Amino acid sequence: MLLLTHKDNMMNILTFDIEEWFHIMDNETTRTAKEWGNYETRIQKNMERIYAMLNMANQKATFFCLGWIAETYPDVIREIANNGYEIGTHSRMHQLAYEQSRTEFTEDLSHSVKTLEDMTGQKVRYYRAPGFSIREDNKWAFEVLAELGIEVDCSVFPARRAHGGFPSYKSPIPSIIRYQGIEIKELPINLKYIFGKPVIFTGGGYFRLFPYSLIKKWTFESDYVMSYLHPRDFDDNQPIIKGLSPFRKFKSYVGLSRSEKKLEAWLSDFDFVDVHHALQIIQWDEVPVIDV
Question: Which pLDDT tens digit goes with each residue over 18-30?
Answer without folding.
Answer: 999 999 988 888 9
